[in-house]
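Our platform keeps sequence and structure together, in a single record for each protein. Such a record has a labelled line for the sequence and another for the backbone structure tokens. The tokens are whole numbers drawn from a learned vocabulary of local backbone shapes. The remainder of this section carries one protein's record, kept here as part of the documentation:
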Amino acid sequence: MAQKKAHEVENFLKNGPQSYEILLIYGPDKGLISEYAAGFAKNCGINSRDPFAVIKIDGENLDKNPSALIDEAQTIGFFGGKRLIWISYAGSGNKSGFSEALKFLLQQPLADCFILIEAGDLKKGAALRKIVEEAPRAVALPCYGDEGQAIQKLIDNVLQQFHCTITEEARSVLQANLGSDRLISRAELEKLCLYSQINKHITLEDVKNSVSDERALSQNEITDAVICGDLPGFNQNFDRQIAGGIPSFLILLALIRQFQQLQIFRFAMEEEGKNINAIITAARPPVFFRRKKILEQALTLWTSIKISRAMEKLHKTLLDSRKNNELSLVIIRQNLLALTIEAARSK
């Protein structure tokens, strides 16, 4: 049985995961999943920029057409060498198509390739997770929100990267407010380090001032426009915020947090049978009363699958914008506009 505990995953990926042909990285922390998947792709010895060597597939399509995975896994590379089949899967892991194709492939040798699967928060009995955990040639790697030592390590790594120091008081506040998503936590720390670049020393005041409540309230106008499909509202508020000097990546981080909240609300609706009004009323921290109707409307437009896909899109947008700093504003605006249009079409 090949599965790792959450605290073992980072060291495992550093010390030769190539002995397994199939890797399933799953859990509620989308940012950590993306980080681990990108790390494996970078270190597995395959040129990630070669379109013939790295094949990216939407797992939802494999549920409908599972033979596509079998054909791809049994194909020999055009120029020879190892290949990486990289699958993004937002489903529950219980549909038969994708799972059965994977089970078939585990019964025979692959054509010199790795299969890397990024999935969501798969339940323990999910067919996809069970198949991987029980196969000797595959390994399942869980990703949960950082806490304790993991947050401390992340803080230390980012501060070291920017050559910054921090007071114990500021560190304690940071540790209490980070952890739900690795990618967001890293981006928040990098933003804080940039804010403190002059003296390279982070104080409690710096932590408090790096993102003000006023900014958060103004960013709600953009997030509300996106999740409710308000195209004029999105264009007007996005342009106003950028013209006012608000960095575009702060707007993006606000959207990621908003979709995380919608995902929690959706789970309570679909898995626990609660009604929308009761879920929003019981939310902690409390939802500002003027936003309750907005969130109720958004939950009628965004299903669990749509929310998962939106979060994948937002995390990819964050990564792409960091890789292409000069085009970050264009990348962020284009992808947020696409989500706004998707919500508008669901009305």
About this structure: Confidence is low (pLDDT under 50) at residues 211-215. The longest helix spans residues 248-272. Strands lie at 22-26, 54-58, 83-88, 113-118, 138-142, 165-166, 201-202. The domain at 6-142 is CATH 3.40.50.300 (Rossmann fold).
